[in-house]
Write a structure and sequence with these properties.
The chain is α+β, with helices and mostly antiparallel strands. The chain has six helices and four strands; from the N terminus they run βαααβββααα. Helix 5 crosses helix 6. The N terminus and C terminus are likely disordered.
Length: 142
C-alpha cells in the first residue's frame, strides 16, 4: 500500500457508483484501505505515527513498517463479517439515500443476500444511526 495519500482518499468515494459496489467492480482492498485511513486518523499509526502500511497476505489486517498491526474492521459494524465490504457500503449509502427507510427486504432484493444477512446488516446500520455522538468519540459523522 505504501503512503496513504489524503487527496486519493478524499476523492475515493466520489468516484464510486452504487451499481459498481453490487456488481463487484470495486476492489475490496481499496475499501479496506479507505477504512484504514479513517480509523487511523489521517493514516498515521497509533503506535509510531508512521504512514507506510502494507497489507498482510490472506488477511484483512495491515502492518506499518515498524511492525505494528491494525485491523481496519475491528471495532466497526464490519468486524468478523464475511459479507463483502462493497455490500456494506452499498447498504449504508442506500440507507442514507432513502432517508433511513431502506429495509432488509429491499437490501435482499438489491444485492441477492439472504434475508437473515440483510436483516443483520440493516440492524447494525440502524444501531449506528441511534448512537449519541455527543457522548462518544468512537464514531464520526459527516
Amino acid at each position: 500500500m505504501g503512503d496513504i495519500k489524503d487527496k486519493d482518499i478524499d476523492s475515493f468515494l466520489d468516484n464510486i457508483k452504487l451499481d459498481d459496489l453490487v456488481l463487484g467492480n470495486v476492489n475490496e482492498d481499496e475499501l479496506l484501505e479507505y477504512l484504514l485511513y479513517i480509523k487511523l486518523n489521517n493514516g498515521q499509526c497509533f503506535e509510531c505515527e508512521e504512514k507506510k502500511f502494507y497489507k498482510i497476505k490472506n488477511s484483512k489486517k495491515y502492518e506499518c513498517v515498524n511492525l505494528h498491526i491494525v485491523s481496519p474492521t475491528s471495532g466497526t459494524i464490519f468486524h468478523k463479517s464475511s459479507t463483502p465490504l462493497s455490500y456494506w457500503f452499498y447498504a449504508i449509502c442506500k440507507y442514507k439515500e432513502t432517508d433511513h427507510k431502506y429495509t432488509a427486504t429491499d437490501l435482499q432484493k438489491d444485492i441477492g443476500v439472504t434475508y437473515k444477512t440483510a436483516w443483520r446488516m440493516i440492524s447494525k446500520i440502524k444501531e449506528l444511526d441511534n448512537v449519541d455522538i455527543s457522548k462518544s468519540k468512537k464514531y464520526v459523522v459527516e
